Amino acid sequence: MLIYHFFKDLVDIKINYEIGKKTWFGTGGKTKILLVINNLKSLKFLLKLVPKSQPIFLLGAGSNVIVRDGGINGITVKLGKDFKKIDYIKGRKIIDIGSAAKDLDISRFCYENSIGNFEFLRGIPGTLGGNIKMNAGCFGSSISDELISCRIIDRKGNIKKLLKEDLRFDYRFSSIPGDSIVLDAKFKAVTKNKRIIQQMLKKISDERILSQPINSRTGGSTFKNTPTESAWKLIDKINFRGKVLGGAKVSDLHTNFLINSGNANSLDLELLGEEIKSKVKKKYNINLDWELIRVGQFKKI
Ligand SMILES: Cc1cc2nc3c(=O)[nH]c(=O)nc-3n(C[C@H](O)[C@H](O)[C@H](O)COP(=O)(O)OP(=O)(O)OC[C@H]3O[C@@H](n4cnc5c(N)ncnc54)[C@H](O)[C@@H]3O)c2cc1C
């Protein structure tokens, strides 16, 4: 009976699913099992059921991920319906957002309700869970700015509420434990004039079109900026603008963006990234850190 309820509530179970194709890069292999989970009850059940030795990879919108060509030899989870809520608790000036809510939907919702300081999400194609995990940000804002608290669930199925003060956020870093899943989060809702929000949204959208290859298969920033220099500048200085390796290419528009120019596999992307790292290290003695999350196995030849 319990099993019946669990499966009924799961939207989808897919075996040997082409998960790489679902990432922004559109490269990489299959996952042995994909579970699209629609509600908390099912997620809790799953976490209690799966042995802790079995890794679970949580995929958001796949906008910062390279899935390696050998695929994910285990379970990939995507959060569905119930995790997409965006609620405005007006009396308390709080927004409560589910971790699968898309950035574009959050920025639209905030605009419609005259809530400011979420305009920057117009420029990021992820989900709230990925944003919190990565402490995503741009145009001088980041997701932790207005955060009050978030709820996470651990591998034993225990739910914990964490206040912003309980967490550490840094540039593209959060201290969300590696094996925990972000469920939802509450943010301060700061009222702002709709016209000002709209101007900001337009500015961000225009600047993105000019400066990022948003219509290409990409994964956003490949490397984190260093404390002293932007990654894109270092990549430019080693003359890698437009550099090609197999089907992978350094974007002509933004050198910290790698592109799948049509027939890339994940190895092409990763090797091009490693070549950049080694050239920058050799020339400037600087270690570039990957911002892209790389998961899965290399393909056996
Ligand atoms: C065109 C383009 C532009 C971009 N511009 C920016 C930018 O300006 N600023 C910026 O910061 N980023 C940018 N990115 C990168 C990316 O959009 C962000 O990192 C985003 O926050 C990732 O969210 P996601 O849902 O796609 O996460 P994914 O890429 O699917 O996953 C990223 C990581 O987050 C984890 N994760 C996802 N959901 C959860 C969850 N619910 N709980 C726990 N862990 C989770 C995953 O396991 C993985 O480790 C850009 C990407 C693209 C393609």
Features:
301 residues, alpha+beta, Uridine Diphospho-n-acetylenolpyruvylglucosamine Reductase, domain 2, Uridine Diphospho-n-acetylenolpyruvylglucosamine Reductase, domain 3, Uridine Diphospho-n-acetylenolpyruvylglucosamine Reductase, domain 1, 3 domains, five-stranded antiparallel β-sheet, four-stranded mixed β-sheet, 7 helices, 29% strand, binds flavin-adenine dinucleotide
SSE inventory with pairings:
Layout: H1 2-9, E1 10-17, E2 31-37, H2 40-49, E3 56-58, E4 65-67, E5 72-79, E6 86-89, E7 94-98, H3 103-112, E8 115-116, H4 128-134, E9 137-138, E10 141-142, E11 147-153, E12 159-163, E13 169-170, E14 173-174, E15 181-188, E16 190-191, H5 194-211, E17 217-221, H6 231-237, E18 244-245, E19 248-250, E20 257-260, H7 266-284, E21 293-295
Parallel strand pairs: 2-5, 3-5, 4-21
Antiparallel strand pairs: 1-2, 6-7, 7-15, 8-16, 9-10, 11-12, 11-15, 13-14, 17-20, 18-19, 19-20
Helix pairs in contact: 1-2
Residues 24, 57-65, 99, 123-127, 129-131, 133-134, 136-138, 181-182, 212, 214, 218-220, 293 line the site of flavin-adenine dinucleotide.
